[in-house]
Amino acid sequence: MKAYQQKQLLERIGRDGATVGHQLPEAIEIQGETIDLRAFVFEIKRRETIPPGERDRVETAKRNLRRARIERVEQIEDGGISYEEGVDLADEIVGIDRALNVLDQLESVDLEAEAQRQDAADKKRWTQFLKKALGHEDDNSRNRR
Questions:
Q1: Which ranges of 3-108 would DSSP assign to H, the alpha helix?
Q2: Contact, 40 vs 26, CB < 8 A?
Q3: Over the Cα atoms of the chain, what is R_g?
Q4: What is the distance between the alpha carbons of residues 129 and 145, in angstroms, rounded to a whole number?
Q5: Distance, CA of 144 to CA of 136 (rounded, Å)
Q6: What are the tens digits of pLDDT across the range 76-134?
Q7: CA–CA separation, 58 and 47 (whole Å)
Q8: Fewer CB within 10 Å, N side or C side of the chain?
Q9: Coil, strand or helix at 113
């Protein structure tokens, strides 16, 4: 692969909008194992949120996808492949990016933890409001008088 071709492929995978209009790969090979990426992503996306039992599975998949992406980018950067192989790798990278975008947009469902965070935030806001309303801007104001 020539230097300008390598640069072209690296620019393609680095573009912000590279995933727009790009379909998820049907399957992808990660660490010698073929994964039905499209089916996995659609199965998870269909739920709109990640149930607690699936959270570990999704996080593991995201880690593996990121690792596979790095390996493919390094192959292109090394330049020891043909241009055609580089194009195939770039297509895979963009497909991985697309899958990661979908998986990263999903929210995990941990209602109890979210309720606790909301409760803590509400108490903090209420305490700050009372301090301002009563003229106690900070806790140390009594000690200065």
A1: 3-14, 37-46, 55-78, 83-105
A2: no
A3: 24
A4: 22
A5: 12
A6: 998 888 999 999 999 999 988 988 888 887 765 555 666 778 888 899 999 998 888 88
A7: 13
A8: C
A9: helix
CB-hemisphere CA count at 13 Å for 117? 5
Per the structure block, which two tokens stand in for 81? 């492949």
Alpha carbon distances (Å) from 95 to 8, 26, 120, 123, 145: 17, 9, 40, 44, 65
- The pTM (predicted TM-score) of the whole model is 0.65
* Tokens standing for residue 7: 């640069």
Task: Read off the amino acid at residue 12.
Answer: R
Q: How many whole angstroms separate alpha carbon 145 and alpha carbon 143?
A: 6
Between CA 26 and CA 33 the distance in angstroms is 14
Using a 10 angstrom Cβ sphere, with 0-12 exposed, 13-18 middle and 19 or more buried, the burial of residue 115 is exposed
**Residues paired with residue 29 on neighbouring β-strands, in sequence order:** 34
Number of H helices, E strands in the chain: 5, 4
d(CA 22, CA 95): 7
